[in-house]
Every structure is written in structure tokens, then in C-alpha cells.
Specification:
By secondary structure, this protein is mainly α. Among the domains are: 90 residues, Four Helix Bundle (Hemerythrin (Met), subunit A), CATH 1.20.120; 121 residues, no CATH class. It contains 10 helices and no strands. Helix 3 runs antiparallel to helix 4, helix 5 runs antiparallel to helix 7 and helix 5 packs antiparallel against helix 9. The radius of gyration is 66 Å and the shape is elongated. The termini are far apart. 12% of the residues are buried.
């Protein structure tokens, strides 16, 4: 048995010797695999930790951003709500204004409709009566303000023609008053105010052509020669003195004594003063103030006689001034308001009859 055991044992040792390196290699591989597995497990754990940590940070950032966006959206929503509230208030005010305007427009439309109905009820006779009343009123104003009797008579005649066209017997009192007033205007003296004014203006233009008194002129005598005797010199001196004395004396044919209130060389001032007197007469003529008018003409005539020499031009101006002074620039104006009052009474009676008939 021992021999057999040895035989059996010997092959086993022979088999063990080549397999030993393979077992050692497998152990190394297993160790390496274990190390790799542990490393992979550690890496996986680290990655998992990083993923979990980073995910928490990102979630916090996202949550913060979302919270900020939510706050912004909330503030914007509040602002939008406030703006909408203001818009609603404005719309309410506009609605109120529109309602008020509609109410006012409806009221005005009703008033216009009433006026149109009133106008439609007015016939052609009413328009003619209104025109005649306007003409009578204008005639009274023209006579009282400007004293133009001819224009007032034309206006009264136009009003009478309108009343004659109406052919209403009730207008007889009005036409009777018109006839009386026309007769009173025609009996007035026809004063041409415009013509008198133009005549005065023409006289003012002629003033510049008048000749005023000039200053005395003196021409010295020639000086005697040295060879002349003392007797001739004395005679020459007496002659020069006499000539100078004669130059200061002028004899003129005037009814009144000439009194120079201004210097003779001031001819322009004399003419300007005379023109001012004529302009004063023009203003008094337009204002219908006969006293001032006559006083200005009398003063101009005296000024003309006193400071301007007697000649044909001065006499012509004096004659025209005298003729203008004889004009009565303001006559007594008749009362022509009776026809206007009668027409108003007629119109009032017509309206009353129309109201009663309705």
C-alpha cells in the first residue's frame, strides 16, 4: 500500500506544479476586478453625491428665479389692475359726459324744432312788416344822428311802398303818419353839409397862395468918393438918413388900422393859423354847432383882412367866407317817430289776433 500511495501521490505533485502560476494569475485578476469594482462603486457614489448636491443648488436657483418672476408678474398684475381701474373710471366719466351732451343736444334739437315751427308759421306779410319797421327805425336814426333829411325821406318812402304793397286797411293810420312826416321833411331847408365841407377845404388850399406883408427893405446908398467935399458928404448923409426913415413907413388903404401881432417875416405861421381856423369851421360844421362855425369863419375873415394885403385873391376868399357864414347848418328837425309807433301797434294787434285764433 505504501508503494501504491507513493505512486498515487507522485502524479499529484507533478500535476500541481504547472497550475500554480495560473492560480496566482487568477487571484491577481480577481484582486484587480475587486479594485476596479470598488473604484467604480466609489465613482458611482461620488457621481451620485454630486448629482444630488448640484440638483439641489439648481433647484434652489430655479425656485429663486421663479419666485422673482412670480413677484414681478404679481407687481405687473397689480399695476395692470390699477390701470384698468383708472380706465374704468375714465370710461364712466366719459359715459356721464356723453349722457349730458345727449341731453343738451336733445334739448337744443327741441328748441330748434320749435323755432322752425314758429318760422314756418310766419308768412310773407310778416317779413314785409319787419322790413318796413327796420326802414322806419333807420330813418329816425339817420335824421337824429346826421341830420340828413333827404336820406330819411328816401327811407320813409321805401317803407310806405312796402305798406302799400301789403294792401291792408288796418295800415291806414301808419301811412297817414308817414305822409305827415314826409311833408315835414320836404319843407326843411336842404342843407348840403358835404358841399359846405368841400368848399371850406378848397379855401384852405387857397391859403398857401396868399401874399403876406413883407418886411421893409433898405438898400444903403453908395459911399461918396474921397475926393468929394464935406458939403457933398453932408448932403449924402442926410439923403441916406431920409431914405432909411422912409423905408420904415408904409401907407396902405385899409378900413381898420393895421396891427401886426406877429413878425412880418413869419408868413408861413400866418397861413397856418388861417388854415387852422378853416379846419375848426369844418369840425363845427360836421358837429352841427352853428355858434362855433360862425365864430371860426368870422375870425378867419378878420385874420385875412388884418395880415394879408388887399388884392383880388384876398377879396375872393373874403367873399366866399361871407357866403359860407350865411348858411344855416342846423335846422329844426321834425319828429318822425309817429309812424314807427303806429306800425308797432299794428304788429302787436296782428300777433294778438293770431294767438287768439289758434
Amino acid at each position: 500500500m505504501s508503494d501504491n500511495d507513493n505512486k498515487d501521490a507522485l502524479p499529484a505533485e507533478v500535476d500541481k506544479s504547472p497550475a500554480a502560476p495560473r492560480r496566482r494569475g487568477a487571484g491577481l485578476l480577481a484582486s484587480l476586478a475587486l479594485i476596479v469594482a470598488l473604484a467604480a462603486a466609489g465613482g458611482a457614489g461620488w457621481l451620485y453625491y454630486q448629482l444630488i448636491y448640484l440638483s439641489d443648488q439648481q433647484n434652489a436657483a430655479v425656485v429663486a428665479e421663479m419666485q422673482a418672476a412670480l413677484n414681478t408678474a404679481t407687481s405687473r398684475n397689480d399695476a395692470t389692475d390699477a390701470a384698468l381701474n383708472r380706465q374704468r373710471e375714465r370710461l364712466a366719466e366719459l359715459d356721464s359726459l356723453i349722457d349730458q351732451q345727449q341731453t343738451i343736444s336733445q334739448r337744443q334739437l327741441q328748441q330748434l324744432s320749435a323755432q322752425v315751427q314758429e318760422l314756418s308759421a310766419v308768412d310773407r306779410n310778416d317779413w314785409l312788416l319787419a322790413e318796413a319797421e327796420y326802414l322806419l327805425r333807420l330813418a329816425n336814426q339817420r335824421l337824429q344822428l346826421s341830420g340828413d333829411s333827404r336820406a330819411a325821406a328816401r327811407l320813409l318812402s321805401s317803407a310806405d311802398a312796402i305798406l302799400r304793397e301789403l294792401d291792408d286797411p288796418a295800415l291806414h293810420p301808419v301811412r297817414s303818419e308817414l305822409a305827415k312826416e314826409l311833408s315835414a321833411l320836404q319843407s326843411l331847408s336842404d342843407i348840403d353839409i358835404e358841399g359846405l365841407y368841400l368848399q371850406l377845404e378848397g379855401l384852405a388850399g387857397e391859403v398857401d397862395k396868399l401874399e403876406a406883408y413883407g418886411a421893409p427893405e433898405y438898400s444903403p446908398a453908395p459911399v461918396a468918393d474921397a475926393d468929394s467935399t464935406w458939403q457933398s458928404g453932408l448932403a449924402t448923409g442926410f439923403q441916406r438918413a431920409w431914405e432909411k426913415l422912409r423905408s420904415y413907413i408904409r401907407i396902405r388903404q385899409h378900413d381898420d388900422k393895421f396891427r401886426a401881432e406877429l413878425a412880418p417875416e413869419q408868413a408861413d405861421a400866418l397861413r397856418a393859423s388861417l388854415r387852422m381856423m378853416l379846419e375848426q369851421a369844418q369840425l363845427a360844421l360836421l358837429a352841427e354847432r352853428p355858434t362855433v362855425y360862425q365864430r371860426a369863419l368870422d375870425k378867419a375873415a378878420n385874420w385875412l383882412q388884418r395880415y394879408f394885403p388887399l388884392n383880388d385873391r384876398r377879396e375872393a376868399l373874403a367873399t366866399q367866407l361871407e357866403k359860407l357864414g350865411q348858411a344855416d347848418i342846423r335846422g329844426e328837425r321834425p319828429d318822425i317817430s309817429g309812424s314807427l309807433r303806429a306800425l308797432k301797434e299794428y304788429s302787436k294787434a296782428q300777433r294778438w289776433q293770431r294767438e287768439v285764433g289758434q
